[in-house]
Amino acid sequence: MSTVSLEAALLLAGVLFMLGLVGVLIRRNIIFMLISVEIMLNAAGLAFIVAGTRWVQPDGQVMFIFILTMAAAEVSVGLALILQIYHQLKTLNSDAANIMKG
Amino acid sequence: MENLLWVIPALPFLGAILLVLFGSRLPRSGVAALGVGSVGVAALSTVLLGLQFLAERPAFYHQEVWQWFNVAGFRPSVAFHLDALSMVFIFVITFVGFLIHVYSTAYMAEETDFSRFFACMNLFVGSMLLLVMADNLLLLYMGWEGVGLCSYLLIGFWYKEPANGYAARKAFTITRVGDTAMAIGLFLLFQLFGTLNIQAILTDAPQVWQVGAGGALLVALLLLGGAVGKSGQLPLQTWLPDAMAGPTPVSALIHAATMVTAGVYLIARMYVIFELAPVAQLTVAVVGAVTLLVAGFSALTQYDLKRVLAYSTISQIGYMFLALGVGAWSAGIFHFMIHAFFKALLFLCAGAIILALHHQQDMRQMGGLRKSMPVVFWTFLIGAASLAALPIITAGFYSKDQILWYTLAGPSGSVWLYAAGLAGAFLTSIYTFRMVFMTFYGAPKTPVAHPPGKAITVPLVILAVLSLAGGFIELPHNFGHVALFSDLLAPVLPGIRAAQALEANEWLFQVLAAVVSLGGVLVAYLYYQQSPALLQRLERSNFAMRLHRFWFSGWGFDALYNTLFVRPYVYLAHLNKGDVIDSFYTGVARLAEGFHVMLSQTQSGVLRNYVMGVVVGAIMILTISLLL
């Protein structure tokens, strides 16, 4: 099994996380924002896996399974919200949802 | 009987409490019975106690009722100490107070706040009894403040008139200046002696201080400050003439039996400290001498009957201070007692006149009352004669002559003090008989509406008898050996001996005093009865009118205090109308409000801004945690 250096793996995770973050920040379409959040979650999961491998501990993988589960739940709620927003506002622009401010 | 000492102050307090609780539901006769009865029974117990005291002649009676509190070794108790000095005081307070209460039932009969009046009067008498019977200075101070409170309540009795409320506040504030000095004096005494028990302090003081020690001087001056405030002496005398805003029986009570005599009592009670500080004692004498002249000149110019009497009280208390200041302790107390009789009499007569003339107090509107109110005329004349110290027949002569004699012949007497006293006696008899001639002689100017009834005339007659006969218990040495009063006080207050060189000539000075007081009557007769043209010529002179205005305004003390204290205070209060301190708290509230507005702006509802906020926050936390 070819070994990947820890730094390279963490760098990949960091880059992925930043890409996801930038996506959340600059995208206006709410579906794209959701996808970007998923990318960030995966980046975090990758970091856990890498750390778990480095210390030869199962905890990293356990955490990844948690994150997967959480992401699934989050996506289902998020999609339901998106459907409702589209239903109400007839648009997917997240800025239009500012009518919800308290 | 001596185990029932507590009954004497407790009765008026009980009367006051009952009147406060149930007074509004009782009929007028019930209120009067309760208010007069409580003081009456106290007077009766005082007489019984006094008889026992005279029979047994103990040094003192003492009764501890309970311990007030016990904090860090400071254990003041509610305990009563009765010796000859307090005996004289409680006799005057309860007996004269009782007569004034009887009189009040008639005087105040038309008032709506009948029960409030009697509740305050009872409280007044009770506080004063507490003051003179207390065995420690803390309890004394409680009574001291009690009389201050009651004077405020009673001077402002007709509170719907703003001027009366102002007079009440003035009395309260000015006496508070003296009270503060006295409180500091008590703190000092406690720090030095570790106790406030009067007898313990009087015993220890000569061991702690040499004669002329700085500590004794300081304490004596602070106590003098308190006495000066309550007794209306220079420079705190300005409240007393304005205190005439209250009902006349209140003035009689304040002037004769209670509040203004508290200062005399305090100095006499703490005489050891004053003897250890000769400078302070000299100050007492000088304050008395100056006050009696200042007030005498002011009394000469007033037109309001009650204000003449008020200034006359200030002047007579000045005599008592003079006596205390030269060490003639028993002479001062003797004058206090006689003064209580004739001043209560004069005030009650003045009240009868004022009531008969529909609350007319201006002497220029009176006149000719001699025929229409004979009882009041004769009793007033007796009181006036006693105040003016007409020789031989009046009690005032014996008490005042004693003071004058010792200011000259006593060990610390001086010609200057004697001259001031003599000039004061001359002024006294002029303004007294000016009052008599203006009120009772000449043409009637206001018709008499209500002739006085029995409840008014009986106290007048009793007080008139006392004002004449009260003096015979203490005669000058060359009149035979009758010195009942100073013998009574001898165990409590040290005696005084006149200088040998002058003793043989005592009669000369008595004749001088008699001539001076008769001369005053003559002057008043000339100016106000015989030839009014003299008075008119005086009124045409510019200088005389200026002087008249100056004296009329009480030597400008009110104006001086207004400029020195009241105006700057009002100015500062006006400047600080917005309250500087408050603006700090307002600032805090404004800041919180500003942050609130800023933060509520950030809640835009734009999702990406929120995310941005989270990111910025995370970066900040990471940066900080990396840096630290």
UniProtKB/TrEMBL annotation, chain A:
Gene3D superfamilies: 1.10.287.3510. It is a multi-pass membrane protein. Its main location: membrane. The keyword Zinc does not apply. One of its GO terms (cellular component) is NADH dehydrogenase complex. GO terms for molecular function: NADH dehydrogenase (quinone) (non-electrogenic) activity; quinone binding. The chain crosses the membrane at residues 6-26, 33-56, 62-83. One of its GO terms (biological process) is ATP synthesis coupled electron transport. Keywords: Cell membrane, Membrane, NAD, Quinone, Translocase, Transmembrane, Transmembrane helix, Transport. Belongs to the complex I subunit 4L family. NDH-1 shuttles electrons from NADH, via FMN and iron-sulfur (Fe-S) centers, to quinones in the respiratory chain. The immediate electron acceptor for the enzyme in this species is believed to be a menaquinone. Couples the redox reaction to proton translocation (for every two electrons transferred, four hydrogen ions are translocated across the cytoplasmic membrane), and thus conserves the redox energy in a proton gradient. NDH-1 shuttles electrons from NADH, via FMN and iron-sulfur (Fe-S) centers, to quinones in the respiratory chain. The immediate electron acceptor for the enzyme in this species is believed to be ubiquinone. Couples the redox reaction to proton translocation (for every two electrons transferred, four hydrogen ions are translocated across the cytoplasmic membrane), and thus conserves the redox energy in a proton gradient. This is NADH-quinone oxidoreductase subunit K. It comes from Pontibacter actiniarum.
UniProtKB/TrEMBL annotation, chain B:
InterPro entries: NADHpl_OxRdtase_5_subgr, ND/Mrp_TM, NU5C-like, Proton_antipo_N. It holds the Pfam family Proton_antipo_N. Residues 134-428 form the NADH:quinone oxidoreductase/Mrp antiporter transmembrane domain. The keyword Ribonucleoprotein does not apply. Residues 68-118 form the NADH-Ubiquinone oxidoreductase (complex I) chain 5 N-terminal domain. GO terms for molecular function: NADH dehydrogenase (ubiquinone) activity; NADH dehydrogenase activity. It comes from the Bacteria. One of its GO terms (biological process) is ATP synthesis coupled electron transport. GO terms for cellular component: endomembrane system; membrane. Its main location: membrane. It is a multi-pass membrane protein. This is NADH-quinone oxidoreductase subunit L.
